[in-house]
Amino acid sequence: MTYRLWIAVAATAIAGLMLACSDDFTPKVSDAGDDGAAPESGAPDVQADVAVDAGPVLLTAVRIAHWSPDSPPLDVCMTTHGTSFAGTPMVETLVGGLDAGDGGPVGLAYTEVSAYVDVPVGQYDIRLVAAGSPDCSSGLVPDFANLPQLYFDSFYTLALVGDLAPDAGAPSLRAVVFGDDTTSPPSSDPTAPFIGIRFVNAAPDVSSAEIGSYDQGTSTPVYAAFLSGVTFGTASIGAGAVDRNGYASVEPMGVGQDLAIRSSDDYAGYRQVVTTVLESVAGGVPVTIALVATPPQAAADAGADAGIVADGSVATDAGAAVEYAPVGSLVVCVDNAIAMLDDTTPSPFACCTLCGPSAAPCSFSWCDGTP
User: Fold this and answer.
1) In this predicted model, what pLDDT tens digit does every residue of 123-144 receive, in sequence order?
2) Which end of the chain is more exposed for a tag (fewer CB within 10 A), N or C?
3) Which residues pair with 221 in a beta bridge?
């Protein structure tokens, strides 16, 4: 399911839901429970803060990123660690079982990211179920247990990375958790805030990657890396001047200064993604940029425009070779923005966009409520 396929039919149906999108980025306390811990049995209600006992329950927020290239559209169930799964899957809850509009079930398709959902603090197990599943009874793969603790008043991305059916030596499907920033790291000049950029390597065939700026304002384009050596399945924690969640402080990019991602061992830059996506992002914003394997249709579209074939090799266009083959595509998310279906209705999906593998500009215009 893509954003545009279901939005036209979704707006009316979703308007009445009690979405748990964390749109104010403030401490969250519900009226349920009495000790700040997740329930001892059963799955937490991921749709809203439901009263289960007298007293407050401390909440945290989590979103799901589907970055496993060969996995089908899916949904996610969460339960307190060591307890049985029950209730309704997360995306199914958010959209109320609404059909995608193309005959397919609602869920997370490859490269999509859900909106944040409030859950009680605690440690969780997760189960992956097929998109459109009405309950959590049947998992697609063995459950993921022993995930990190989720703490109060925090925001997390739970990313599904790796291959469901990996080739020999390729990374298999796994679930990884990243803590998210809600404001960008401070700049030396308070009147000129920086962008906070975190880089996640979710491309199974790229063992290590780096991200930097690509300035085309000179006769010879200049590339300068600011986060390097990010291995598959990890974020840029410890890879540069970053905060504890892996965000680096980067000046907002101007016209002619693009974002570039390349394999860490490709010093000549023949395998890279170059995009102008961050020219429209103002300072003071945290952004997550994930390198992912290019979806087949995106590869085909890029090949038609830039002489790149679906397997990532360099083709020719009217006899002339292109300058590079793509290392992948990018999922770029503004982490402190809420995607809207209209002026009053939050989307069940995060404020993210798919960029690449071509160098065409990438836009966040749909995040303002006009997809």
Assistant:
1) 999 999 999 898 999 999 999 9
2) C
3) none
Does 239 share its domain with 94? no
Domain that holds residue 189: 185-371
User: 289 - beta bridge partners?
Assistant: 199, 332
Question: Rounded to an integer, what is the distance from CA 145 to the centroid of its chain?
Answer: 21
Same domain, 228 and 343: yes
Residues 190 and 335 in one domain: yes
Phi and psi at 8, nearest 5°, equal -60, -35
The contacts of residue 79 (CB under 8 Å, 6+ apart) are 42, 43, 44, 85, 86, 124, 125, 126, 127, 136
Q: Which of 160, 180, 200 represents a domain boundary (last residue)?
A: 180
- Higher-confidence residue of 45 and 363: namely 363
Residue type for 23, please? D
> For the residues of 239-270, what is the DSSP string, one character each?
SSSB-TTSEEEEPPP-TTEEEEEEETT-TT-S
Count of domains in the chain? 2
